[in-house]
Write a structure and sequence with these properties.
The complex is a heterotrimer.
Chain A lengths: L9 H28 L4 H6 L11 H9 L2 H32 L5 H10 L5 H15 L5 H24 L4 H9 L4 H12 L1 H16 L3 H6 L8 H7 L8 H34 L2
Chain B lengths: L6 H9 L5 E7 L5 H17 L3 E7 L2 H13 L6 E4 L4 H5 L17 H6 L1 E2 L2 E2 L2 E2 L2 E9 H6 L11 H13 L3 E4 L11 H11 L1 H9 L8 H15 L12 H9 L4 E7 L2 H5 L14 E4 L12 E6 L2 E4 L6 H11 L2 H11 L17 H10 L4 E4 L2 H4 L2 H14 L7 H10 L2
Parallel strand pairs in B: 1-2, 1-3, 8-9, 11-13
Antiparallel strand pairs in B: 3-12, 4-5, 6-12, 7-9, 7-10, 7-11
Chain C lengths: L29 H31 E2 L7 E2 L3 H7 L2 H33 L5 H13 L2 H12 L5 H8 L13 H29 L3 H9 L4 H12 L1 H16 L3 H6 L11 H10 L7 H25 L8
Antiparallel strand pairs in C: 1-2
Helix pairs in contact in C: 1-13, 3-7, 3-10, 4-7, 7-10, 10-13, 12-13
Classes of the chains: A mainly alpha, B alpha/beta, C mainly alpha.
């Protein structure tokens, strides 16, 4: 059995439930509000910000999709983020496995150098990065953006995965080696599957951060056809009229894929959790 | 978004020996349909007149545009033509933009444009947009309360009393908000200062090369502004109201007596009411801002040059780019701009030739600007560096919000230079 | 298999105890190491190392277009020392980075415990608590500006509805309340993520240990403090470090809402760097690069400090 019971003290239970209720309202309330607003027009919202949506303006989703080039932005975001996350998981996993399992000279130094670059504010490095992209011929290309995204999330991915890999007991690897597994097979068939919870964590984190990434996307991509979703939402935020209704609609379109990724991977996370307990 | 049609290029390449040329243009105003149409239609007209030429325009919001430009120009990339404003002296200082003094038809362009884009003998920008700082009033509300606001501006104590009267009646005297802009909150203060000091001393004050913030005239001006602020001029949510919201606050809900705004006011206010525009029955008046006691220049006000186009000095098509800009420097284009955008322009145009429903507006605007002496540029366009940042925090936001007093303002501004 | 021996391994231990005791080179094959490490190192060298090196270079040189770079030495570093805006930004950012991880991780632990203890509707609650994590800063910023709006925002409306109208104030407009208001927003955003990770860690704890604790008659609190928390300490450290770093770099949220206003009460190091790099009417990146370099050392010190604070006393047996 996986859970434990809190001792049945009525007062404690009530306090806990109250805490949960308040926190749930705090966490989910704004999202529900935006979901409601995404189905209302801006005038309706201005008249009464908190009313329920009626009539349900589903056509707003259609118009956001077709009129504002949202479909192009959406597919660009999907392609770029998906590719980047896959690459990150594989090469980040490889590097993390290497740091966790092997010893070699300068290991500590290399790890430290990679990890420490998380700290540099992107606002400063973006200009240097831009010049490099131009030199490589990757400016204004989606591939270039993918590679940049991989590079900015690599340190955190390695950090999270390494600490998990390191906790996998060494006996597993000794046994595998005796059984004749090659190093690559050890990584692919042992480390990765066992580390599924951590991998799910990094996949979720990377997807969210890259899906919503804005600064590099705006600087490194100038063709409108290659732009990603965050810039799309910004179009509704012009200063002429803050089109609250359309912003909410645009937001919902941007959120749904991330929710799906989360739901899919959190199932894996749960499986990983239950598998871990029944060792 | 709108991209150029390549047809002309293909035909040109196949049949004529002339090579196809492409001009790239990056601009702000991505969400201002009227301005987008103006530039796009000028581009299409130019393409028709010059077969083989295509103009490719990418539209941005201002801040992402600046970030993209800075990174691109540093790497030696960047479009042939781009949007710039007069405070971006870094372009001239680093030789990144082309001197247009012998490339543009300057007869068709307002003379002050040459001052404002002048730099060490050359002229570097083509100003499309210009706006003055006006005080828009809700005439019906003022009449109802029996307040008389002369077009030339209320003087001294009369204005403070008017503000108190409106506040006591439960209405907001002046709608304003600094939620998303670094300049509207400062309108009240800097218009008072320019009237108090006169244009030359005011500009010297902002540049920090002569008149000090500790000058007694400056103090007197600030105290006058403070008396207006303390009389309850601004709404409580001043710090978070955005520019667009301030417009609605003024003419629709909750409704205010006055709104100090750039003359680009119509671009939002004259839209349909359910798109954020004025209600149909709204009576709009235009007056000048309050005049401090002992003002050196009661008719002084600010004119700001807004969006301009500059040519990238590193471009391969500088002459072609300049030609394109010239194609917009005609009185017809000037009037077209006025009619479509309802805001002044650097192109010489004739407002009296405008007919139709907006003629009355232009007449009021002209009346408010009769005999005006101008200082060019709002403070954030005339200042740079830490001084500008401090001005934004102190005079645009903290001072009108009632968070600090005159002494703190003077101390902080004096230290910032 | 028995209780895994390295459950207590602290998070950053790479530079210290080798993962698997003494081994001969057969177990550290050069080719395998190279194969695993090379792709990451390549990407790193190409896209991260060069810009960082450039930043260091910029901090001591004057680099503008159309002119060769000149050495300016440490003038920027000296100027930074007396820059009041910078120090205000440092203070704000450090406050944020100190308070937020505490809030985010402790609240998340409580929530994870609640789910672990199988309160009703846990599936729904997990999703509900996680949704804030999914939103982009741009939209979170807009959303919370609406909530904090003085006239019709949710917070003031609720306060007025329960008769606490006096407490209604322009939350983002006053220097005293602006920063705490933004801290509440980031806590809202990230607590759900921490909760999910902690829950995963708790669920992968071996049940034998917990049952043993129960047999020993540990109370609810005792079990929490003496058994569960120490076992998930590495996870908690990871989350605190991630949260700390994230707050030290925070930019998007502040930029969308207050841009550092009022009176620099919400100015962070990143927003100041951005202003310096893009709004200062100069192409010279020397000053913002200098800030980046100095800040790097400060954050590194913070991370090392946190790691030491959390470190396990005992070494592990193999």
């Amino acid at each position: 059995m996986n859970g434990t019971r809190i001792s049945p003290n009525g007062l404690r239970m009530a306090a806990l439930l109250l805490f949960i209720a308040i926190y749930t309202a705090y966490a989910a309330g704004p999202f529900v509000w935006v979901a409601m607003m995404s189905l209302r027009t801006t005038t309706e919202i201005a008249a009464d910000p908190y009313a329920l949506p009626w009539p349900l303006h589903f056509d707003k989703f259609v118009s956001a999709w077709t009129d504002s080039n949202y479909d192009a932005y959406f597919f660009n975001s999907v392609g770029i983020v998906l590719t980047a996350v896959v690459i990150l998981t594989v090469i980040g996993g490889m590097a993390a496995h290497c740091f966790a399992r092997y010893r070699f000279r300068f290991k500590g130094l290399i790890y430290f150098i990679i990890f420490s670059t998380i700290i540099f504010p992107p606002q400063v490095t973006v200009i240097g990065l831009f010049q490099i992209m131009v030199d490589y011929g990757l400016y204004n290309s989606r591939i270039g953006l993918v590679l940049v995204y991989v590079s900015i999330q690599l340190p955190i991915t390695i950090y999270i995965l390494e600490s998990f890999f390191a906790r996998i007991p060494g006996d597993l690897f000794d046994a595998a080696r005796i059984d004749g597994y090659s190093e690559w097979e050890i990584f692919w068939k042992i480390s990765l599957p066992v580390a599924l919870p951590a991998i799910s964590t990094t996949v979720i984190l990377n997807t969210i951060l890259l899906w919503n990434e804005f600064l590099y996307a705006v600087v490194l991509i100038t063709d409108d056809d290659k732009r990603t979703l965050p810039l799309g939402v910004l179009r509704f935020m012009g200063d002429q009229l803050e089109d609250v209704g359309m912003i909410a609609t645009g937001l919902m379109i941007a959120i749904v894929p991330v929710v799906l990724i989360y739901v899919f991977f959190s199932e894996r996370l749960i499986q990983g959790m239950t598998a871990g307990a029944v060792k | 978004m709108k991209k150029a049609i390549i047809l002309g290029t293909v035909l040109g390449a196949m049949s004529l020996p002339a090579t196809a040329q492409e001009l790239t243009l990056w601009s702000h105003w991505a969400d201002q349909q009227a301005k987008v149409e103006f530039v796009e239609s000028a581009a299409r007209a130019f393409e028709e007149a010059n077969p083989g030429v295509t103009i490719d325009i990418t539209w941005y919001q201002k801040e992402p545009l600046y970030a993209a430009l800075k990174t691109a120009l540093t790497a030696g990339q960047g479009p042939d033509i781009f949007y710039a404003e007069t405070d971006q002296t870094e372009y001239m200082a680093n030789g990144l933009v082309l001197d247009l003094s012998d490339k543009l038809n300057w007869d068709a362009i307002e003379p002050w444009a040459q001052d404002v884009w002048g730099w060490e003998g050359g002229v570097y920008g083509f100003p499309l947009e210009a706006w003055t700082v006006e005080t828009y009033v809700n005439q019906a509300m003022l009449d109802e309360m029996g307040i008389d606001m002369p077009v030339s501006g209320a003087e001294g104590q009369a204005f403070v009393e008017a503000v108190s009267k409106i506040a006591d009646a439960g209405a907001t005297p002046m709608a304003q908000g600094v939620g998303d802009r670094p300049y509207p909150g400062a309108f009240l203060t800097h218009e008072i200062l320019v009237k108090k000091l006169g244009a030359d001393d005011y500009e010297s004050l902002l540049r920090g090369d002569g008149v000090e913030w500790t000058d007694p005239r400056v103090r007197a001006g600030l105290e006058y502004a403070k008396s207006i602020i303390d009389a309850g001029a601004f709404p409580a949510s001043f710090s978070s109201i955005k520019l667009g919201e301030a417009h609605r606050y003024f003419h629709t809900q909750p409704g205010a007596a006055m709104l100090q705004m750039g003359s680009f006011y119509p671009s939002r206010a004259f839209a349909a009411p359910d798109e954020g525009g004025e209600p149909d029955s709204f009576e709009l008046g235009i007056v000048n801002g309050p005049i401090p006691p002992d003002a050196a220049c009661p008719t002084c006000k600010t004119i700001a040059v807004g969006g301009s186009f500059v040519v990238n000095a590193g471009s391969d098509n500088t002459d072609l780019a300049a030609q394109f800009l010239n194609s917009m420097a005609t009185p017809e284009m000037g009037n077209k701009w006025l009619e479509a955008n309802l805001v002044q322009t650097g192109i010489v145009a004739d407002p009296s030739a405008i007919e139709g429903e907006n003629a009355a507006y232009f007449q009021k605007l002209a009346a408010a600007n009769e005999g005006a002496e101008y200082t060019y540029g709002i403070p954030v366009q005339q200042m740079t560096g830490t001084a500008r940042e401090t001005f934004t925090q102190v005079i645009n936001q903290a001072f009108p919000a009632g968070l600090i007093g005159v002494d703190e303002v003077i101390d902080m501004m004096a230290e910032a230079y | 298999m028995a209780v895994p021996k390295d459950m207590n391994v602290p998070a950053i231990k790479v530079a210290k105890v080798p993962p698997s005791g003494e081994r001969d080179d057969h177990a550290n094959p050069r080719s395998a190491i190279a194969m695993f490490l090379l792709p990451a190192l390549l990407v790193y060298a190409a896209f991260t190392a060069l810009p960082v090196a450039r930043t260091l270079y910029n901090s001591t040189h004057l680099v503008v277009p159309n002119r060769p770079p000149e050495w300016v030495g440490f003038t920027h570093y000296i100027e930074l020392w007396t820059d009041t805006i910078f120090w205000k930004a440092v203070w704000n950012t450090l406050t944020w980075a100190a308070v937020a991880p505490i809030l985010e991780v402790s609240v998340a632990t409580l929530l994870a415990l609640a789910l672990y203890a199988k309160v009703p509707f846990s599936r729904f609650l997990r999703v509900a608590w996680f949704t804030p994590v999914l939103m982009s800063y741009v939209v979170v910023g807009i959303l919370w500006m609406w909530i904090y709006n003085y006239d019709w925002g949710a917070l003031n409306t609720m306060l007025r509805a329960v008769g606490l109208g006096d407490w209604a104030s322009p939350w983002l407009g006053h220097p005293d309340t602006a920063l705490p208001s933004l801290i509440a927003v980031t806590t809202w955003m990230w607590t759900g993520f921490n909760m999910v990770v902690i829950l995963a860690a708790m669920s992968s704890l071996p049940t034998e240990v917990l049952e043993a604790a129960e047999l020993d008659n540990c109370g609810w609190f005792g079990k929490l403090w003496f058994v569960i928390l120490p076992l998930i300490r590495p996870t908690l450290l990871n989350l605190v470090v991630l949260s700390f770093i994230g707050k030290m770099k925070i930019f998007d949220l502040v930029w969308v809402t207050t841009q550092g206003n009022p009176l620099w009460a919400t100015e962070t190091v990143s927003t100041y760097v951005y202003k310096r790099a893009f709004q200062w009417s100069t192409f010279d990146l020397g000053y913002p690069s200098t800030i980046a370099v100095i800040w790097f050392f400060i954050v590194m010190a913070g991370v090392l400090g946190l790691t030491l604070l959390f470190r396990q006393r005992e070494k592990l047996e193999y």
